[in-house]
């Protein structure tokens, strides 16, 4: 992943996380996901406001993980499993329509979940695509390797739990 440009560094960052493809690893404290993503972004120079949206089917997320994530301010967006990729792309596209550039959009999702790039938006993944299995290994490495404290007590733009419902269309 490349370092943020000066403009990107201060722009708001929106993270869209596919919880089916990239679940919280077994035994990992779900309360640490937000600080780990924050530290990862800081490592690459991103310091603007941060909003993380976890996209998934709550019926397939263990209750203790769902509860822990809701306590951190990560937005939880309910999407039936069979339309997850399409809805992740829809959420990213909607984000771009609602937030003018400059803005950063990081997808913790498969490469086919990305909308077409638009001018002024920095759209990226935290690791280059290899295969679904390799991506999951890289995801686990990313969150397990970021164990030092973050420079920000609470990310700017942290929002309380919001649960959206995908319409399945």
CATH topology: Rossmann fold
SS elements, strand count: 6
State the helicity in percent bands: 25-40%
Shape: globular
Spell out the helices and strands N to C: HEHEHEHEEHE
**Strand percentage:** 15-25%
CATH architecture: 3-Layer(aba) Sandwich
- Biggest β-sheet: strands ordered side by side in the sheet: 5-4-1-2-3-6
- Tell me the radius of gyration: 15 Å
Query: Quick check: average pLDDT?
Result: 83
Q: How large is the count of helical segments? A: 5
Question: What is the domain tally?
Answer: 1
Q: Structural class of the secondary structure composition?
A: alpha/beta
Contiguous low-pLDDT stretches (5 residues minimum) are 149-169
